[in-house]
């Protein structure tokens, strides 16, 4: 749990230190702007922008029932962020597994990626797809015509 918050907290702390230094030099406007940038980066890198993660076994069970893809991800991964942002509201229809919170999820990803924890790894119908195009993932959510 804590590991997911390390990068966002470092960004907030770093931004605060730099903003304090700028404020002491009399550049209040620059300090506020820079602090906002750091806070935005912290927000984007936080686990808050992702739908609630569930365990790998539960995600696989749910996927078998409803046919929705399972996304294995980790906080701080820019490719995971790209996938999440490009999916928009559709992202909530997927089953998300944070591999830093779920050891079974990390093991599934390693098994699919020759021992590497490469994310995002998206499982569709039991087959892994590493860092797929977000448009393709969105198509997998649509019912077949």
UniProtKB/TrEMBL annotation:
Gene3D superfamilies: Glutaredoxin
Source species of the chain: Streptomyces liliifuscus
Transmembrane spans: 29-50
Name of the protein this chain belongs to: Glutaredoxin domain-containing protein
Glutaredoxin domain ranges (all copies): 70-127
Lineage of source species: Bacteria, Bacillati, Actinomycetota, Actinomycetes, Kitasatosporales
Keywords: Membrane, Transmembrane, Transmembrane helix
Domain of life assignment: Bacteria
Annotated InterPro entries: Glutaredoxin, Thioredoxin-like_sf
Keyword NADP: no
């Amino acid at each position: 749990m804590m590991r997911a918050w390390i990068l966002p907290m470092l960004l907030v702390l770093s931004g605060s230190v730099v903003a304090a230094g700028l404020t002491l030099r009399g550049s209040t406007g620059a300090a506020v702007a820079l602090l906002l940038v750091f806070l935005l980066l912290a927000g984007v890198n936080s686990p808050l922008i992702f739908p609630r993660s569930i365990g790998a076994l539960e995600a696989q069970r749910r996927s078998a029932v409803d046919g929705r893809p399972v996304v294995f991800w980790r906080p701080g991964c820019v490719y995971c962020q790209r996938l999440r942002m490009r999916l928009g509201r559709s992202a909530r229809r997927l089953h998300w597994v944070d591999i830093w919170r779920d050891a079974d999820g990390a093991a599934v990803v390693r098994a699919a990626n020759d021992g590497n924890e490469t994310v995002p790894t998206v499982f569709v119908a039991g087959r892994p797809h590493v860092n797929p195009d977000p448009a393709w993932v969105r198509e997998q959510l649509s019912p077949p015509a």
